[in-house]
């Protein structure tokens, strides 16, 4: 009787796995496959003539060069900043480490278009903050951030959190006993760091560097807001300009550009996996004392330096953004007689597009988090219980939609959904194409934490529930869900906070009525409404920081692993 129950349960699990796996494949990999087909065919016939023509254009080669320069040097800036913070926070006896980690997560949660907008408010001749302090450059002086150097600097600041988190995770796994053994053997000072600590963390640093490069390559907000005014075009902005200027008539051409971005990104992904595979030293840091190198008399100066850097890269730009939002026009000094909330009132209460964008962004972010949780929980559990060739293939390719730049995924979604199969209907120009793009984009963000959590569970618990008559959905509800809830919650938080401010994907998919917050800010700044753009940007910053603070305050009541920046 028990054997029959188990066989029946196994068949129902296999059928459910097949159904969910097909759904997941359609969501994540079908758009990428459609993009590839478009790039290597001409009216349904295999051909590389279009690809050769597009790749030979001077604008393509120029944009490729600009993308490699800004992404490469921006990654270098991220490595310098992120590694310095990671080593000091993870390895020394600094005080207020939790506050530092929280502050370093904020740049990653603030969308890149707000980062670019806030920095332009503290530099240049029209800076309200500089005019208020009386140190603004003369009128007519160039905005220094409208340059390759400005893009590189802000890409480095925007993505330093990735280096910090990946390297910190590797450093925290090094137990105190490793360094003590090295010191007993005669290693001292710099030699301990160079010969013991560095080799153990190089794979983490290299993997984080590869991820940062891929992320910087696909960043749209910063190159668009700083590069377009300067005539400095990268591949994502070239795709945007072509599609915005000529519409869907250039889909085949921009699909080739998207494939070029994707090819460079895939190289970065392969490098990241290679370096992760090189980590053949296994540590048990969680059961040992973590490193806490005493800084002695240098602790206070180091703390002052780190908090000064946080002030410059986070607080000062926000001051500039706030100052701009409180003046009647961009470039007017902030004084008691010029201070006004007109821009706030206009953008928040009189512009209908703002309320619509808030509803769209909140609904899309929350909906994506909930739907992905409902899909990923049973899928990860069933893939662990019933591994197949198809599930292993899906597992190996799952990270591709997230790792590919958002502009690539946008083009892929347009090609896939501009005309639905066997009908004349289209999802292009509707809110649903953005929603499906979010599901594809953030699938891995939800799936990977859940998968890692379920791999640690003893399958005997679900089998015991099955043996006493618990059905498939009852086991999922009463056994699997409670045990994997912390990982699922962490993934849901990351999906919501990231999707709420997203621009790169929605920039090419929005239409009138489907605007997101990122799109509204970009359009306001592009049309010269800088004060209103700053007011809306500050509102979003307040919302994001309030959400993060609320999660942080209640973190002690949550199971371990729920708060992403504490894992």
Describe the protein.
The chain is mostly helical and about 575 residues long. It has a two-stranded antiparallel sheet. It is built from 24 helices and two strands. It folds into two domains: about 1-45 and about 340-565, MetI-like (MetI-like fold, Orthogonal Bundle); about 50-310, Orthogonal Bundle (MetI-like fold), CATH 1.10.3720.10. It has helices at about 1-30, 30-40, 50-55, 60-90, 95-110, 110-120, 130-135, 150-170, 175-185, 190-215, 220-225, 235-245, 250-275, 300-325, 340-350, 350-385, 390-395, 400-405, 405-415, 430-455, 460-465, 470-500, 515-525, 530-555; strands at about 40, 45. Strand 1 (about 40) and strand 2 (about 45) form a beta hairpin. The model is unreliable at about 280-290 (pLDDT under 50).
How are the elements arranged and paired?
Elements: H1 2-28, H2 30-39, E1 41-42, E2 45-46, H3 49-55, H4 58-91, H5 97-109, H6 112-120, H7 128-133, H8 148-172, H9 176-184, H10 190-217, H11 221-227, H12 235-246, H13 251-277, H14 299-325, H15 342-350, H16 352-385, H17 389-397, H18 400-403, H19 406-417, H20 431-455, H21 460-467, H22 472-500, H23 517-526, H24 530-553
Antiparallel strand pairs: 1-2
SSE run: HHEEHHHHHHHHHHHHHHHHHHHHHH
Instruction: Indicate the low-confidence ranges by residue numbers.
Output: 280-288
CATH architecture call of the largest domain:
Orthogonal Bundle
Number of helices: 24
Given this structure, which CATH class of the largest domain is correct? Mainly Alpha
Instruction: State which percent range the strand residues make up.
Output: under 5%
Structural class: mainly alpha
Q: Remind me, CATH topology of the largest domain?
A: MetI-like fold
> From the alpha-carbon coordinates, what is the Rg to the nearest angstrom?
25 Å
Question: What form results from the Cα inertia axes?
Answer: globular
Percent in helix: over 70%
Major β-sheet annotation: 2 strands, antiparallel
Question: How many angstroms separate the termini?
Answer: 44 Å
Arrangement of strands in the largest sheet: 1-2
Tally of domains: 2
Mean pLDDT: 82
CATH superfamily of the largest domain: MetI-like
Count of strand segments: 2
